[in-house]
Amino acid sequence: MSENRKPLLSFVHKLPNANAPGNSGKTHCPSCLGLFKAPRLLPCLHTVCTTCLEKLEPFSVVDIRGGDSDTSSEGSLFQEPKPRSLQPQVGILCPVCDAQVDLPLGGVKALTIDHLAMNDVMLESLRGEGQGLVCDLCSDREVEKRCQTCKANLCHFCCQAHRRQKKTMYHTVVDLKDLKGYSRVGKPILCPAHPAEELRLFCELCDQPVCRDCVVGEHREHPYDFTSNVIHKHGDSVRELLRGTQPHVEALEEALAQIESMNSGLQERVEAVAGDVRTFSEGYIKAIEEHRDRLLKQLDDIRVQKENSLQLQKAQLEQLLADMRTGEKAGQCRGYEVYGAINTKEVDPAKCVLQGEDLHRAREKQTASFTLLCKDAMGESMGRGGDNVQVAVVPKDKKDSPVRTVVQDNKDGSYNVSFTPKEPGVYTVWVCIREQHVQGSPFTMTVRRKHRTHPGVFHCCTFCSSGGQKTARCACGGTMPGGYLGCGHGHKGHPGRPHWSCCGKFMEKSECTYTGGQSAPRSLLRTVAL
């Protein structure tokens, strides 16, 4: 068998799985994904619709192969040999594998028709109750019968006409549903040069299928045989070629396995490197954020320190300005008010005293005050004002600005200091005279939340304050027999003295600690006086 018979092998035996896997690859075009319409077999053994191939953009190539060279495996089945010269050639790329396909002179329509694919399309259409099949004679009505002798699909009307003609009246006609189990129901392969004749012969010299008219015409005196005999004759060669490809298949499979292993290793390496990058970047970001917070804290500390210093300087300047605008009264002389006196006393910050109820406790948004008593080194009162007193109230967490303070000189050696904290918390209070801390300075002050008033009543028991209502409750938790939910004199749970109905405290002038617990309808208790 010559090597030029490779196109015959492609023509009579299409390798399995040439297209996409599954039945859809045998009946559906890989380009348009629809059922094959006039499918053409490419040299790369992929099958594509004629219309899809015509839509591909052609390109020009130079064919340097001579007429005697082995070109049959790449070219068309019926391509004529070319003389050995540089000839321009038109080609396309296979839409499945991008293999170069040299087009014959007739273009796409001159490529070999894939009759096996057409057979598969017809079988699939038959399994779909004949959907999509039309009569081969009238090309109008749906198919109902098939002539096994003519290999033609017939509608009901054409089937009756087929049986009435003498030449075809004895042909075997079967229903479509009886053909669903067949593996081949395709039409006969007709000769392109003689459309009325079927390709039943094979020219050994030209290496192509021919019909009876071709044998007595163009292929006269050429050795030929029936196509069925040629297939069986070269079956051993085909099987030998398949056996020769088996080692290559195993090598390819091994190479693919190695590629898969390398791909897995590459993926693992990529994930490891990505993890290292993420770990490094996250750590670097955290370090930058920590450094940022440290710098911001240092900046805030510097801000608070500078603000406190400016506050003290402001207080000094204000006191100095007040001293310059006013003088110390020295009484009257000859009926006139006179000012100015010689004072030998000097204030001693270590002997000064701080006093007042708000020294260590205050309420948010409520004015707090205390008094500074200035004394000399002997511990006696200065008896005059005009001392340089500086006061600063600073939040201990340093998140807020210092609280604005007001220092009032009573002109008798005492000074009233007042301020209004805006937020609860712990504050540091500095009291200085001539930039020296007085006795007890600095000290801390706790600012609590605003005083909460009692929403209930201060009573002896719920029985009296509610007028004997059974549903009245009290925060003390006492109850009375007889279905009463509240407390009464001498009964279980009664505290034995007046108390608040909302929180149960015994002090009338106290802060309410009710937190929204289970004390029931207090609206009744609020409206009843003791």
Descriptive notes:
- The protein is α+β, with helices and mostly antiparallel strands and 530 residues long.
- Helix content is 28%, strand content 19%.
- Strands 15, 17, 20, 21 and 22 form a five-stranded mixed sheet that branches.
Give the helices and strands, then pairings.
Elements: H1 6-12, H2 24-27, E1 39-41, E2 47-49, H3 50-55, E3 59-63, E4 87-93, E5 100-102, H4 115-127, E6 145-147, E7 152-154, H5 156-164, E8 173-175, E9 201-203, E10 208-210, H6 212-216, E11 224-226, H7 227-233, H8 235-325, E12 329-333, E13 336-339, E14 353-355, E15 361-363, E16 368-373, E17 389-395, E18 405-409, E19 414-419, E20 425-433, E21 436-437, E22 443-448, E23 458-459, H9 462-465, E24 499-500, H10 523-526
Parallel strand pairs: 15-22
Antiparallel strand pairs: 1-2, 3-4, 4-5, 6-7, 6-8, 9-10, 9-11, 12-13, 14-16, 16-19, 17-20, 18-19, 20-21, 20-22, 23-24
Major beta sheet summary: 5 strands, mixed
Uncertain runs? 1-23, 64-85, 518-530
The helix fraction, in percent, is 25-40%
Give the overall silhouette.
Answer: elongated
Structure characteristics:
four-stranded antiparallel sheet; single chain; 530 residues; Double Stranded RNA Binding Domain; Immunoglobulin-like; five-stranded mixed sheet; alpha+beta
The gist of it:
The chain is built from 10 helices and 24 strands. It has 530 residues and is α+β, with helices and mostly antiparallel strands. Strands 15, 17, 20, 21 and 22 form a 5-stranded mixed sheet that branches.
